[in-house]
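Contributing new records

If you add data, match the layout below exactly. Sequence lines come first and carry their own label; structure lines follow with theirs. Keep one chain per record. Anything else will be rejected by the validation script.
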Amino acid sequence: MDVEKTIEFLLDEQAKMFAGMEELRVRMDESHERQKQINVSLAQAVLSLTGSMEKLAIAQAESEKSLAALAAEQTAAHTKIDTRLEALAALNAEGAGRMNALIAVVDGLVRRTQQ
């Protein structure tokens, strides 16, 4: 066994291993940089989405207030219409009663003249 060749072989293998480790370190650094960029992009997207969600929540709250006000106005309008319809029904009933009384008077006059 040749000791020099064995040492040379071991040194070559060790050099290859160190070269491989250096390449792996460079790739890891590149991967780490890409991951940092992705994290920054994701953080920006989350911030943007959070802002949009806050705006949406505000808009929804305003819509709910508007709908509540509209519902209150509509309820008041329905109440007013119901009151007016009741008054109209009462006037109609009164008018019908007067009409019946007038018909009775006219009918009585017509019958008297026919007799």
